[in-house]
Amino acid sequence: MTRMQPTDLRTEFVRTPLGIDERNPDLRWRVDTDRRGAAQTAYRVLVTSSRDRLADDEGDVWDTGKRESETPSVTYDGPPLEAGTDYYWKVRVWDDDEAGAWSEPAMWGTGLLEADDWEANWIRRPEEVDVDAVDDFERGQFTYARREFALPDDADVERARASVAACHQYELSVNGERVDRGQSFSYPDYHYYKTVDLTDALEAGENAVGALFTWQGEGQGRPTAEPGFICQLEIDLADGSEQTIVTDDSWRLREAEWDEDAPLRNDEIGEAVELVDGRDEPRGWAEPDFDDTDWTAAGVVGEHPTDPWERLIAQNREVVSREIEPESITQVDDETYVVDFGRVYTGLPELRFADGTAGHRVGMRAGYHLREDGTVHEQEGTQWTDMRYAYVQRDGACTFRPFNYLGVRYLQLESPGEEFSADQVSLRALHNEVPDERAATFACSDETLEEVFELARHSALYGSQEQFIDTPTREKGQFLMDALNISAVSRRAFGERALTRQAIREFVRSHYRYWEEEGRLSAVYPNGDGKRDIPDFTEGFPDWVWQYYRESGDRAILETAYPVVQAVADYVAEHVDDETGLVTELSGGEGGPYEEGIVDWPPEMRYGYDRDWPARTTVNILGANAFDKAAAIADALERPDEEVETYRDRKRALEAAIGAHLFDGDLFVDGCDATDASEGRSQHANAFALAFGLVPDDAIDGVADHIAEMGMQMGPMMVPRLLEALEAADRTDALIELLTNAEDDGWANILAQGGTFTWETWHCRDPELPTDERQNRSESHAMGAPVLVSIQRALLGVRLADREGSHLEIRPAIGHLEHASGRVPTERGRVEVAWSRSDGKCDLEVTVPWNATASISLPSDAETDRVGVTPVASSLPDGVSDVQRGDGSIVVDVESGTYQFTLE
């Protein structure tokens, strides 16, 4: 008999978060069991102030008692939590009358909950304390800060936590070891900090703590703000004594070895080319007894909160790294080596010189392409980003480590001063920490489909950094539509939640910061250029919120985002024309290529879409969907019926107007005005209509034929709508053709051209494009990765039909592939599907996770089909609740567990 022991305990969707500032955190769990029909009917959660007290099965902080509930989560509603405190918890569940085993203990720590909990000061270079204008700060500055302190010689460190923030980034070191890296790309009045565990890093006796922190001015994904660093280290010793170390004028600072006059990489990110003089590196700077007499005392801006840092909020996500070894290193000539890391990663190259010569300059250049002579191309695929580095050696062994990431496949090394080998170079690849990089898998009889799935998985992983970034080269900004696309893959490929929560909250803040009176959101946020929007992106926001909620069950996000969703719906409604009933001349993107809606991006990815109409079809369909999702969110939040019906009425009215003015009886046109309509019948207009359910039943086949025959005529940004349209019309063969056609635009063509990361446009290497346009396109844009989700839904056949994956619809593409297998992560656990066909027979195995149910659709052409179960209710196998024969299929309703079927 199963022990039904809960596992994967998460607080605020994170395993063991060290410093959260939620007063009522969300607690979640799941159960791994192979028993059919296993489900939760009740739970009990205990929260204590120490791990030892959990063993007594009594919660000295909070005890829910046994609560009847099928939902494997609870919101803490016990006594107020204390700042800077660790809490321990465990859970057990019941399945009817059967009680499961207690989970293993889990922990969460609270951060500094109130401004008064901070004792530390913001510090920076002393000469900059009284600077009044941001323009007076040096751009691209890197600064070292350090402080030594002593613990008793017999000290036993029981707990040590540092609360740390920098504007914009920091690397924290203790006793010579780097222990953390943090990004605080946020506005100073709503700034992030992290809690870092230093318990094992501190020692009895002398200690040193230090940071290398940077500020680089405004850029994509980064507001201007001001340079600054803050740290509060709280140490609890086993003898009951405490010690607190804070940033103040006792800290010592000095400029780092980065050239602050270096040229900018481009005009978007504000980062300078990293020119590093190794002779100036203060070796041992973060170790005790380092001589810092020539350093200066820190300049104190003020104790937190102080202008401009008004509020610090906990950042409950990490950027993690792994070392990537070269696939090859080639000596091109006597002084030039080229390293190939195999594919594009977001990362930091590291070079280890065995015998440096003081003053010898080594040049480097990263890139995505090689020239015919084997050297790295400085422009192709990188959007004109200056991808150079330079390092001035010191005598003897020395190491070059840049600070800011780039998208890197190739690295050219010029004049290293010694013979250079592969074991002297590596790449520290960076990505947002996720629960499981391989949570989702897919294998099948078509090798290209497998490669497309992996291309998307890799792209989404490395397109997730401190934010969902559009590209790790030119911009590094968090664009709303890019983030929506990458988030969809990150959730379904890795089971990610924390970065999506952060991103949605940030775009909510963009509304209140810039658009509260206009109902819009920023197109990219945070950002140095402030107020900038794209109408289509604003319209897409409610859909992102709703889809995230459906997968996660995160009600707190609905409550946070709903007022903004309402504002978006009102913004769309205000632009409905009285005469046509259509959204007309939707304001936004004023004075540029974004005005009134972009349809797709870059411009060549519109494939000639006719935008010369005041009412654009894609904008109207997105508007109707915004109304639909506003109604769904209002309903989920149990808002008044009249409020819900208002949004539903708006949706119905707009859909009717779309049908009356933008559908010609056979196909959808690109736009119209009150008297005329476009002659364009683009793939965009028709795929949007089919994906969002606006096509009349008798026209579905014609619209599906139209978009399928066009091949690929949508860009990576909006292509998810095309995939959804083909799924909705059950055109699996057309979908597979779209995904595997290496001759037409699409993912297979990227692979055929040697691409290893999804592109901004299918035409990145199109020789017919002017050189400057081609070079202004990125070969590392993760917004094209949602094809992974389509593979899961349409080919593996797994659809989440209810909140948190509590009910699944599983319809494998058995008739379209010889064999396939894969996993899909959900809140309840992993869904697994595998089948193979041979000799006229198909064997299928499906695993439905604990606490979930599924409807499994199997192909059926005759009454004699055998599927391993019988439709006679009295003799249904264990775990099977119903069997129904439909038109061309048999639907088997099952509870959790593993099921085998044989189809003949």
Automatic annotation (TrEMBL):
Domain Alpha-L-rhamnosidase concanavalin-like: 331-428
Annotated catalysed reactions: Hydrolysis of terminal non-reducing alpha-L-rhamnose residues in alpha-L-rhamnosides
Domain Alpha-L-rhamnosidase six-hairpin glycosidase residues, every copy: 438-787
UniProt-annotated stretches for the region Disordered: 57-79
Endpoints of the signal sequence: none
Entry EC no(s): 3.2.1.40
Residue stretches making up the Alpha-L-rhamnosidase C-terminal domain: 809-869
Cross-referenced SUPFAM superfamilies: Fibronectin type III, Six-hairpin glycosidases
Record's keyword annotation contains Hydrolase: yes
Pfam family, one: Bac_rhamnosid_N
Listed GO MF terms: alpha-L-rhamnosidase activity
Domain Bacterial alpha-L-rhamnosidase N-terminal residues, every copy: 156-302
An example Gene Ontology biological process: carbohydrate metabolic process
InterPro entries: 6-hairpin_glycosidase_sf, 6hp_glycosidase-like_sf, Alpha_rhamnosid, Bac_rhamnosid6H, Bac_rhamnosid_C, Bac_rhamnosid_N, FN3_sf, Ig-like_fold
Keyword Plastid: no
Keyword line: Hydrolase, Plasmid
UniProt name for this protein: alpha-L-rhamnosidase
